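Progress note, sequence design subtask.
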C-alpha cells in the first residue's frame, strides 16, 4: 500500500520542482535585431477619479533602438479612442522627448510623436501626459456598477518590425495577425 503512494508522490515532487525552478529572463535588447526591434520600458504614474470616471496620468517610455537605422518618429496606440469606447477616450495633454517639448499628432487610434533623433543602438525617453475618460460600458475598457475595467487605458507603444511601425485600428476581438 505504501509503495503505491510513494511513486505518485515522487512524481508530484519532481514535477513541482521542475515547475518552480527559476529560468533566466532574456534581455529584451538581445532579441532578434535582424527584424528591427524597438525594446521599450515604461514608468507610469496615474490616479483614478471614481466620481468623474477619469484616469489622469503621466508616463515615460524609454525606447532602445535596435532597428539598424535612425528613428525620427514613434507611434503609440490609443485604444480608448476606438469607436467601441465612445463617449470615452484618451486626451493627450503634452508630449516631450528627453525633456524637450515634442511635436505630435493624433489620428484615429494612433499617436505619432515627431522630431525624434534616435540613432541605431541609442535610446530616448518619451514622456506623455494624458487623461483617459472611462465610458459607462461593461467592456474591457469601461465601468459598470461598481466595476472598473482598464484594459489598454494608457498609450501603448506600437510594434516596430522589419517593415517599420505597425499601427492598426482597434480590433475588438483581440489580436490580429498579419502574414
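Output:
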Amino acid at each position: 500500500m505504501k509503495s503505491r503512494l510513494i511513486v505518485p508522490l515522487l512524481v508530484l515532487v519532481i514535477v513541482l520542482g521542475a515547475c518552480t525552478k527559476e529560468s533566466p529572463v532574456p534581455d529584451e535588447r538581445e532579441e532578434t535585431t535582424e527584424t528591427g526591434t524597438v525594446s521599450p520600458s515604461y514608468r507610469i504614474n496615474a490616479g483614478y477619479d471614481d466620481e468623474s470616471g477619469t484616469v489622469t496620468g503621466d508616463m515615460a517610455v524609454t525606447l532602445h533602438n535596435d532597428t539598424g537605422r535612425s528613428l525620427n518618429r514613434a507611434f503609440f496606440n490609443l485604444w480608448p479612442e476606438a469607436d467601441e469606447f465612445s463617449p470615452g477616450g484618451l486626451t493627450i495633454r503634452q508630449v516631450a522627448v528627453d525633456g524637450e517639448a515634442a511635436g505630435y499628432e493624433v489620428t484615429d487610434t494612433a499617436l505619432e510623436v515627431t522630431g525624434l533623433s534616435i540613432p541605431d543602438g541609442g535610446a530616448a525617453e518619451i514622456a506623455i501626459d494624458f487623461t483617459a475618460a472611462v465610458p459607462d460600458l461593461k467592456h474591457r475598457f469601461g465601468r459598470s456598477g461598481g466595476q472598473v475595467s482598464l484594459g489598454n487605458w494608457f498609450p501603448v507603444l506600437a510594434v516596430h518590425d522589419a517593415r517599420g511601425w505597425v499601427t492598426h485600428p482597434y480590433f475588438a476581438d483581440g489580436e490580429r495577425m498579419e502574414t
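The CA atoms of residues 148 and 173 lie 20 Å apart. Work on this subtask will continue into the next period as scheduled.
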